[in-house]
Specification:
Strand content: 15-25%
Number of strands: 5
Protein name: GTP-eEF1A C-terminal domain-containing protein
Number of domains: 2
Pfam family, one: GTP-eEF1A_C
GO molecular function, one term: GTP binding
Distance between the termini: 42 Å
Number of helices: 0
Oligomer: single chain
InterPro entries: GTP-eEF1A_C, TRAFAC_GTPase_members, Transl_B-barrel_sf, Transl_elong_EF1A/Init_IF2_C
Largest sheet: 3 strands, antiparallel
Strand order of the largest sheet: 2-1-3
Helix content: under 10%
Keywords: GTP-binding, Nucleotide-binding
């Protein structure tokens, strides 16, 4: 989504900028109400082309609750900190759990 930041506040004090890790509040205008940003989203300048989408990534995951076995093609919702996105398993390098006796298989 796209919008314009009018003010930045940290602990109820107006600030000119924020650093990585700062907890800030933003007054943003011009946002699409059907696609509002959520906590954990990354904000960049519209003209900044250094960040982009990725089609593929490697991950070591921990499954909290799943009724069936994870297989190639499985499409879970991935959660990283406050962000979440749909993913698809394209390959499994190894599994470890109760059924493997705690060993990588």
């Amino acid at each position: 989504c796209t919008g314009k930041v009018f003010t930045v506040e940290m602990h109820h004090q107006r600030v000119d900028f924020a650093n990585p890790g700062d907890n800030v509040g933003l007054n943003i205008k011009g946002l699409d109400k059907n696609n509002m940003p959520r906590s954990g989203d990354v904000m960049v300048y519209k003209k900044d082309t250094t960040l982009g989408q990725t089609k593929e990534f490697d991950a070591q995951i921990q499954v909290l609750d799943i009724p069936n076995e994870i297989k190639v093609g499985y499409s879970p919702i991935g959660f990283v900190r406050c962000g979440r996105a749909a993913c698809r398993v394209s390959a499994l390098k190894w599994k470890m759990g109760k059924e493997t006796g705690g060993k990588k298989m």
